[in-house]
Amino acid sequence: IVTVNCARLLKADHHATNGVVHVIDKVIATTTNTIQQIIETEESLETLRAAVAASDLNSLLESEGQYTLLAPTNEAFEKIPRETLNRILGDPEALRDLLNHHILKSAMCAEAIIAGLTMETLEGTTLDVGCSGEELTLNGKPIIANKDVLATNGVVHFVNELLIPDSAKTLFELAQESEVSKSTEFFRQAGLSSHLT
Fold first, then answer.
1. Which of 12, 84, 109, 143 has the fewest CB atoms inside 10 Å of its own CB, making it the most exposed?
2. What is the mean pLDDT of each run of 10 residues along the chain (197 residues)?
């Protein structure tokens, strides 16, 4: 699938006497803002804006290149426990890992994403990006709220859930989601859960 500024190429190589015509499915709008400028002007990304500034990722998101930012909205940040959010925001390393987990190494328009595609993030982890009917999915869940916001250095998809990588979780949080969740309950009963958090 070929796209031009996220417009799908429908028919290619119509030769004319004075050139060639490619048919696309949308009108291409002028793109002038970087990904960083989109974050700075979008009200629903206020928490993300603060997180990017705290982790010093501004320069990356305004630099030349082609990235995909899966931008968590304010609503996405509000869905996780306040204690967890404060811990991540107060830990520069965990915060950087969290944000890098939301940045793909190449620009991926929704039209060019096919089911079963695995994409590498800047953090070095992978995300399963796919589709379910008309909806774009991440790790099998349709959590993309707004897609294909174009920037001069890539594309932004707004997501309404936070994607927290293992490297930004405490031992307790990791254990709760795994086959050793019963063991964490024993730690809690023994008054030792602080060691895991």
1. 12
2. 90 94 92 96 95 92 94 95 90 94 92 81 89 81 90 95 86 69 71 65
